[in-house]
Amino acid sequence: MRKLFKGKTILFLVMSLMLLLAACSSSGTGGETSEPKDSSGDSKSGDKLVIGFSQVGAESEWRTANTKSMQEAIKAAGHELKFSDAQQKQENQIKAIRSFIAQKVDAIVFSPVVETGFETVLKEAKDAGIPVFLSDRAVDIEDDSLWVTFLGSDFVEEGRKAAKWLVEETADVEGDINIVELQGTVGSAPAIDRKEGFEEIIADHPNMKIVKSQTGDFTRAKGKEVMEAFLKSDGENIDVLYAHNDDMAIGAIQAIEEYGLKPAEDITIIGVDAVKGAFEAMAAGKMNVTVECNPMFGPQMVDLIEAYLAGEEIPKRVAVEESMYTMDQAEELLPTREY
Ligand code: GYE
């Protein structure tokens, strides 16, 4: 099967609008809230806060934009930031959180590299009376009193959007559609959820098969390396690449070109994040679609921290709004992209 991409622009626009409306009506708050820290009226709002931010790393364009958004928002609000880059290692994050606790920061912003294994350190923060705000990625911990709120994207929905686009684009294709998948960091919320959402949709389409799936750790270098291995073992039979982020897709595009095939024509390329690199690849005709995952929520996070410390009730889950973009929109939208 070749050339899956066809310009079903109108249908796509209608779909996007529907997705956007659905996102707007469901975004923001879940039912649960976090009790205010201080209901005595002795508010911390207006004070200069010291905020510790334990970031995952600098593995992708998305991450760099997210770090910048958080740094700028904290500075703009007149607060002090203590920043720690964990280089995608859980033990570095645990150390960073312990050091924030020792320094008695007012709040901890934490973007957990993986979902599990943070219970003890989060308990230590709670015992020290320091509120923790989960940023971008969730944890898989039963005791949800260990964090105030989780501000981030719905990764399962992103996976669904990617698969729905593919189903739409291949509606007329007869025969098997062989998909290779580049997963994000093993054990991370976006890798687990983007896989789940995608698989949920293709489950209703027996001709769609994930024939190979491996982690590329969310980086270009790893994405390229793993795609090279996929191509080497069965290059001619790969119809679609589903990459859990754009950086891995971009690395894979290079591998596909070096192998002698045409990305976006011979192999349909689906990414997630909607970073500038993806828009450039789409504008150059080398990538078909990217599902947006918006990293620019620094200001939203600062608002949540200030509101909580001022005694307001905070929803347990706050969603970031996002969309998706195709090749035919890339050139026009590229100059407007913030990240
Ligand atoms: O998609 C990827 C990054 O957690 C949403 O992490 C984030 C993901 C993002 O490395 O590019």
Number of domains: 2
Mean pLDDT: 90
Q: Which distinct ligands sit in these coordinates?
A: beta-D-fucofuranose
Q: Please tally the β strands and state the result.
A: 14
Q: What's the CATH first level of the largest domain?
A: Alpha Beta
Structural class: alpha/beta
How would you describe the shape? elongated
Just name the CATH architecture of the largest domain: 3-Layer(aba) Sandwich
Radius of gyration: 21 Å
Q: What is the CATH superfamily label of the largest domain?
A: Response regulator
Question: Describe the biggest sheet?
Answer: 6 strands, parallel
Give the helix proportion (percent range): 40-55%
Q: CATH topology of the largest domain, anyone?
A: Rossmann fold
Element order, helices and strands? HEEHEHEHEEHEHEHEHEHEHEEEH
Percent of residues in β-strands: 15-25%
Low-confidence stretches: 1-30, 39-43
Protein name: Monosaccharide ABC transporter substrate-binding protein, CUT2 family
Keywords: Signal
Region (Disordered): 28-47
Signal peptide: 1-28
Summarize the structure in words:
The protein is built from 11 helices and 14 strands. It is α/β, with parallel strands linked by helices and 339 residues long. The protein folds into 2 domains: 50-153 and 296-320, Response regulator (Rossmann fold), CATH 3.40.50.2300; 155-293, Response regulator (Rossmann fold, 3-Layer(aba) Sandwich), CATH 3.40.50. The strands form 3 sheets. It has a 6-stranded parallel beta sheet, sandwiched between helices. Helix 7 crosses helix 8. The longest helix is centred in the first third of the chain and has 18 residues, at 9-26. The structure holds beta-D-fucofuranose (GYE).
